[in-house]
Amino acid sequence: MGCVSAMEVENVKGFLSLFSDGTVSRREPIFHVPLHDDASIHWKDVQYNPKLQLFLRLYRPADLPNSPVVFYFHAGGYCFGSRTWPTSHNYCLRLAKELRAVVVAPDHRLAPENRLPAAVEDGVESVKWLRRCAVREAEEEWVADADFDRVFMVGDSSGGNLVHHLAVRLGAGSPEMKPVRVAGYVLLSPFFGGIMRTQSEELFNKEALYNLDVHDKFWRLSLPEGENADHPMSNPFGPRSPSLESIALDPLLVVACEEDLLRDRVEDYARKLKKWGKEVEFVEFVGKEHGFHTMDNAYNTEASHELMRLIKQFIKRT
């Protein structure tokens, strides 16, 4: 009897295919942009989870003691992405240079092979790695003289969703990570979902690279099998999501883009947290699309510079 070939059961714009036997095919990276490395920032890769063979990339300006630490969690709908992608690498170089900070860019396990909450668990482990460095249980000279009392989390799209879950998981002051203290969180167009459509989802351009079909597929592939978009990992205000009203959170900077299907969900997220007394700054970039700050044609625009100024000001005052 002949072999039966596995059938394709899910396809994300030709970039990812899931087959009936559970195998996954990816075309990486999706975005091809030139590198912007002027050699002013040193960088290297470090393994933070030997068991799962997970790596992070460290970025450090030369001779900069007592600098803040900024984590950057990449985009990709939990199904794509890596610290090595040019879009992520460029932005981390920029963060390190302009914020004068040590930047930590962890990879995490990808869905659908590793469905949520795997990526969030990996995010927690990357913070634990920094804590091990702080208490000298792990040796890493590039962070040895960093200011562990000024640690910040920046998350882009799905990375922003991950950062939200870190903020809730670690709580205000991140007491379980002492002497590491997470002082604030930056969510850039965080990847949220829900069964009920928002206006920005319903009216969004169907021809865009990141459209509602792709959005839905990312959730279908990344959530636990059989779950829907009201799952707590997707919808922070869903019927099964724990209330955030009574949870103490550190300050958040929440950024939305006008030309983004996520716009309404991001604004609603910030509005509800503010209503419950959380310290939240919400900024919307008019006329800008999802992920504009990492695209090469926007790298030196006024909007990308303004976003960096906002992050810098947030870190300075927090």
UniProtKB/TrEMBL annotation:
It comes from the Eukaryota. InterPro entries: AB_hydrolase_3 (IPR013094), AB_hydrolase_fold (IPR029058), Carboxylest/Gibb_receptor (IPR050466). Gene3D superfamilies: alpha/beta hydrolase. Residues 70-293 form the Alpha/beta hydrolase fold-3 domain. GO terms for molecular function: hydrolase activity. This is Alpha/beta hydrolase fold-3 domain-containing protein.
